[in-house]
Design brief:
Elements lengths: L3 E4 L4 H12 L4 E5 L16 E4 L5 H8 L4 E4 L6 H6 L1 H22 L3 E7 L22 H20 L2 E7 L2 E2 L12 H10 L5 E3 L5 E2 L2 E2 H13 L2 H4 L2 E5 L5 E2 H12 L6 E3 L14 H7 L7 H13 L5
Parallel strand pairs: 1-2, 1-4, 2-3, 4-5, 5-6, 6-11, 7-10, 8-13
Antiparallel strand pairs: 9-12
The chain binds uridine-diphosphate-N-acetylglucosamine (UD1).
Uridine-diphosphate-N-acetylglucosamine binds next to helix 6 and strand 8.
Amino acid sequence: MAKFLVTGAAGFIGRSIAAALLARGEAVRGIDSFITGKRANLAGLEAMEFVEGDLADPSVCARACQGVEGVFHEAALASVPRSVADPVGTNVNCVDATLNVLVAARDAGVRRVIYAGSSSAYGDTPTMPKHEEMKPSPISPYAVAKLAGEHYLASFTRVYGLETVTLRYFNVFGPYQDPTSHYSGVLAIFCRKMLKGEQPTIYGDGEQSRDFTYIDNVVHANLLAAEAPAEKVSGEVMNTATGKTITLNETFRILRELTGYQGEAAYGPARTGDVRDSLADIGKAEERMGYRPLVDFREGLRRTVDWYRSGEGT
Ligand code: UD1
C-alpha cells in the first residue's frame, strides 16, 4: 500500500518529488490527468503505482487518497498566461481540484497534505524580499486560484485538524520542465530555443527579475515539509526559493554562455498579468524546517541546459 500520494506525478515538479521518494525506498502512488503532464515523464518511475485520473472528479480523489499517510499536491495548470486566456479552466483544475483533494484526504485519514503554492500570490507589491506575513495581492486568475488553495489548506487545518503545509514556490526550473508550450516557464523555453539556435523573445524590457529556483531545492523543501514537526509547519505558508534574484536580461547572457547561442534576444510587449520583480525571504522555511537551497542558480541552469542538450524533454 502506498504511503505517499503525489498529484501531478507526470508533471515536472510532481515527477521530481515522486522520484526522490522512490529513491528513499518509499511506497508512492502517483496520479495525473495528462492535461499538462507527459507520459514520458513517468520513465524511471516504474516502481510507482500510477493512476490516470482527473482531480476535478471527487470520486477519483477519494480512490487516490485511500490508505496514504501524506499527499504532495502538485497538480495544477501552472501558467499565468493560460489563466488569463481561460480563468474558468484554471479555477477547475486548481481550486476545485484542491478542495476535492482536501476533502478526500480528510475522509481517508491522511495525516498531512503538502501543497504547491505560488509566489504569484504576492503580486506586484513593492516590498522586497517577499515575506509570508505580507498581505497577498494576486494579479492573475492563476495567482488567485493558487492563493484560494492556500486558504483552503489553512481552513482544513483549523476546522478538521488535517495537517497542511503550503510551500510558495518561486519560479521553479530544471530537468523535466516542458519547454514545448508557449505556456511553459521562461527558462525551459529559452533553453530549448537557444540550444536549437532559435531566437528567444523577452517580453518587456528584460529588467523584470525573478528568484529562479532549481528543482532540487523544491524537492528538498517538500521532503522537509513532510517530516517537520506539526507544531512548526502545520497550517503554515513558507516561501520555497533561493533568496536571490536575477533579471531576465542577465539570465539571457548566462544562457548564451551555457548554450553557445550567438544571437541577440528579440524584445516584445510586456505580458498581461506579469509581475515586475520577485524575490523571496526564505527565513521562515529555514527557521521552521531547516530549509536551505542546495543548488544555486548558475549550477542549476548548467544542469538544466545539459539535460535539454541531451535531447530529453524536447
Ligand atoms: C509565475 C509565478 C510562479 C509560478 C508561475 C507558473 C510570479 C512572480 N511567479 O511565474 O511562481 O510558478 O507563474 O507559471 O508570479 N517571459 C519572456 N519570454 C518568454 C516567456 C516568459 O520574456 O518566452 C517572461 C515573462 O513575461 C515573465 C518572466 O519571463 O516576465 C517569467 O515568466 P514565466 O516563466 O512564465 O513565469 P512567471 O509568470 O514569472
